[in-house]
Specification:
Elements lengths: L8 H16 L1 H8 L3 E6 L2 E6 L2 H10 L1 H12 L4 E6 L48 H12 L7 E5 L6 H15 L5 E5 H13 L3 H9 L3 E5 L2 H4 L5 H15 L3 E6 L11 H8 L2 E4 L5 H14 L6 H10 L4 H18 L5 H8 L13 H12 L3 H5 L5 H17 L4 H7 L5 H17 L1 H14 L2
Parallel strand pairs: 2-3, 4-7, 4-8, 5-6, 6-7
Antiparallel strand pairs: 1-2
Helix pairs in contact: 1-2, 1-4, 2-3, 5-6, 5-20, 12-13, 12-14, 13-15, 16-18, 18-20, 19-20, 20-21
Bound molecules: adenosine-5'-diphosphate and magnesium ion.
Length: 456
Amino acid sequence: MASALLASKTDLWEAALGVLPEKVGRVTFDSFLRTSVPLSLDGTDFVLGVPSDFARTWIAERHLRTLERCLTELAKEPVSVRLEIVPPELLTPQEPLPAPSAARDVIPARSAFASLPLNPKYTFGNFVVGTCNQFAHAAATQVAKAPGTAYSVLFLHSKVGLGKTHLMQAIGHFVQAYRPDFQVVYISAEQFVNHLINSIRDNRTESFRQHYRSVDIWLVDDIQFIAAIEGQTSEEELFHTFNALYETGKQIVIASDCPPRQLQIMNERLRSRLQQGIVADLRPPDVDTRLAILEKKAQTEGVAISRDILVRLAQQIESNIRVLEGALMKVCAYTSLYGVELTPQTVDEMIRDYATSSSQPHVSIDEIASHVAKHFDVSVEQLKSARRSRAIADARQIAIYLARELTDHSLHSIGKYFGGRDHSTVIHSYRKVTEGLEKDPQMLWLINNMKTALSE
Ligand code: ADP
Ligand code: MG
């Protein structure tokens, strides 16, 4: 039996509402728990009514134990929780109530949407994750799982051929599969501009606006194209569309060939909006990731090719995944045409022309340490010491993660810097933070802000 104090389901749930935001995180709380309702408390079985199947899965997979622990503490009895989907009229109303949206009713037919088709190969399953793109991948998966809730704006940037379009479309595929009620629109900025120009010409700007503003997930590729256009009309229109979606809690994902601050746009408000989201870069992959990508590609394309040759390609083509894939296809074509495997010399010959260099701006490990120390209110000396108190250890893990992400230092030298630790500790710290990024929106947000601050 629950304690006398919290004997009713309502009392128990109200008490829980006071502490849950802190335990499950704001995003989950606001999206799924705030409107949930206590349905029954029978002995120690608590049944919670949740808004959707999606909410049920989300809570069940990530927060059920926290929820049970929290209710158990409050009731001073072991409470077990069951989740049931309830119709909207039974839910606790959101405050403030969202403005009724008429847009839903005027959505044009699906086929009327100017979405480019998604490439069926650009899925999360086909995306190889390495240190070069792990952060972007983590952000993209979180966006895909809870569009419009965790981060309303995700800004992906990298040089050409490093996976922006792939990752962006993977979000589209995922949402289409799990949220078929969501209107996903994938367009290039160029297509957006063409569409705009046509609608101005035909006096249809109002329907143009309606059209884009009833989108749930807006994937805008190659936004740098906007900068190449004379005049500000397209920027303005993009900005308005962006704001309309942003303000109605829709999901926006942007890809660009440079970070927001370098984007050649006139509209400073647009730039600052772009900077407010999660900004994730994709860097050229290291040799192991390149090899993994080649192996995956050979497998999905169903081509048999010796590992020696894959290794050779991976070692020599450093900067661009599209080029890497191109080289693989060239080698495959040769093999199937002549029915023989290439010799290493022929491979070298074939890929000689591919450019390979790449370089990143550098941050020093000292800068990272002092930034992290300041944020966590510890000293740099403490980060560099062997001390293991919880607060220092957490901060140190993040500093190690950032050192690995943002500098070229070896595992050994990072470990040495942070208290003479060995490379396995560095790997462990890196992995802990990486896991946090996949699960915890706050962690992703924190790391995002630190990376942005450090690379400014
Ligand atoms: P971008 O948009 O950055 O120019 P793309 O997304 O078009 O790059 O990627 C270029 C090619 O490389 C695509 O064929 C894509 O599938 C492939 N690719 C990029 N990153 C990865 C990855 N991490 N794993 C597997 N394939 C990748
Ligand atoms: Mg692209």
